[in-house]
Specification:
By secondary structure, the protein is an all-beta fold. The protein has no helices and 8 strands. Helices cover 0% and strands 49% of the residues.
């Protein structure tokens, strides 16, 4: 199978950074990562497609993502309204 670029990749979403809550404001804060990675889909012996490894979508000379920023964002959710 061909190598594909996946957005967001495995380092994407909220990842391992956790979140913070401010009870005075009623806001839950967390950061997201919108980073891509590369990988392949291969057919298993059961006929299902499975992900076979992954790699970072990095510029090897600068060690930063090969995609236009922003590479993430800070998000706040009002826990009282869901907005």
């Amino acid at each position: 199978m061909k190598t594909t670029i996946n957005f967001p990749g495995t380092p994407g979403a909220t990842n391992w950074h956790g979140e913070s809550y401010d009870p005075t404001l009623g806001y839950l804060f967390f950061n997201t990562l919108d980073l891509a990675d590369v990988g392949k889909l291969n057919k298993s012996s059961k006929g299902l497609y499975v992900r076979d490894g992954f790699g970072r979508f990095w510029d090897g000379t600068k060690y930063w993502p090969c995609q236009e920023p922003p590479w993430g964002e800070m998000v706040a959710i009002n826990v009282n309204t869901g907005e």
